[in-house]
TrEMBL record, chain B:
Gene3D superfamilies, per the entry: Hotdog Thioesterase (3.10.129.10)
UniProt-listed PANTHER family: 1,4-DIHYDROXY-2-NAPHTHOYL-COA THIOESTERASE 1, THIOESTERASE DOMAIN-CONTAINING PROTEIN
Domain Thioesterase: 66-138
Annotated protein name in UniProt: PaaI family thioesterase
InterPro entries: HotDog_dom_sf, Thioestr_dom
Database matches in Pfam families: 4HBT
Transmembrane residue ranges: none
Record organism: Shewanella intestini
SUPFAM superfamilies attached to this UniProt entry: Thioesterase/thiol ester dehydrase-isomerase (SSF54637)
Length: 177, 150
């Protein structure tokens, strides 16, 4: 399956085989479908997700700037997804880790009519906690819209139902299972 | 009233909400608060914000539970409204940082929030926000935020 080349953002989903699982994970979350999140890349080290601009999520009607809460949702999803990918790679198990805490610093308002991206990393994984950090940006990661750190609690893989496991892992190419 | 609310427009909207004791009017002006479906009720000096159970707000489909980001957005918007009403704001406060601790899963049911303006200076305000569901003493999340006022 070939995807059209994105000219505004250089991504290489083919180079990062966890992109498919990450896409499926994000699509399982109703709020993320509603917001139109799209996973651009995912690896054991990082996740890159796009949030398209929409009138529905404006926080300041005077300027058309999107609400901080949407940025928080994007970051929480990015970090959570990075944890899923890191655990999948390191322990070959599928776990859904709830957020313990999240701290977001808003550097500048997101420009209206433009997508926002989040680059999230799980930079430390222990037996019970996953530590993450993320940057939300538009044109360049060097001009962040927001910067965040968050920690996630690891829970037993048995907490995941068979339906959810199938939705994420079913019919994947061999090398990605 | 001017549809495209400018600085004084915001003030008018806040004044009108206070005068009529109808704060839904304030929330209607912000598309995101409609998007998540939140509402507010004022009881004297106290304001309680409500986020009704809504399928689109679900994050974890297994429990099911509300997306953590939606809870955060709901709490952030609650703090903004609280500040605007109690400061009689002339403009919308700008978020500087937001820090949230999740204490319990936010189940697929109605959620409520209350805010406390911990400190309000000339330029910046510190607000703490608590969120609960069926029992006010069993918080599902607690948060703290800074806003620029000028």
């Amino acid at each position: 399956m070939t995807k059209p080349v994105d000219k505004t953002l250089k991504v290489s989903p083919e180079f990062f085989p966890l992109t498919e699982v990450a896409t499926r994970f994000v699509n399982q979350l109703a709020q993320c479908r509603r917001l139109g999140f799209e996973v651009k890349e995912a690896s054991e080290h990082h996740v890159l997700i796009e949030l398209p601009y929409s009138q529905d999520i404006i926080g300041d009607p005077d300027t058309g700037v999107i609400h901080g809460g949407v940025i928080t949702t994007l970051i929480d999803t990015g970090c959570g997804c990075a944890v899923v990918c890191a655990i999948l790679d390191k322990f070959e198990s599928l776990e859904l880790s709830p957020t313990l805490d999240l701290r977001v610093d808003y550097m500048r308002p997101a420009e209206p009519n433009k997508a926002v991206y989040v680059f999230a990393e799980c930079y430390r994984l222990t037996s019970s906690v996953a530590f993450t950090r993320a940057i939300a940006y538009q044109d360049s990661i060097d001009r962040p819209v927001a910067h965040a750190v968050g920690s996630f609690m690891r829970i037993s893989p048995e907490m995941i139902g068979e339906d959810f496991r199938q939705a994420l892992m079913g019919n994947l190419p061999k090398e990605q299972q | 009233m001017n549809e495209q609310a400018n600085a004084s427009g915001v003030h008018d909207i806040v004044q009108r909400a206070i005068a009529t004791n109808d704060y839904s009017y304030l929330l209607e002006k912000v598309p995101y608060s409609q998007f998540i479906g939140m509402s507010v009720e004022r009881f004297g000096d106290e304001m309680v914000f409500k986020l009704p159970a809504k399928d689109d707000n679900i994050g974890n489909p297994i429990l099911p539970a509300i997306h953590g980001g939606v809870i955060a957005g709901f709490m952030e918007m609650s703090a903004i409204v609280q500040l605007m009403v109690f400061m009689q704001a002339k403009q919308v406060p700008k978020i500087v940082d937001f820090s949230i601790d999740y204490l319990r899963a936010g189940l697929h049911q109605d959620s409520f929030a209350e805010c406390k303006i911990t400190r309000q200076g000339r330029r910046v305000a510190n607000v703490s926000i608590n969120c609960w569901q069926s029992n006010r003493k069993q918080l599902i999340a607690t948060a703290r935020a800074h806003f620029l006022l000028e």
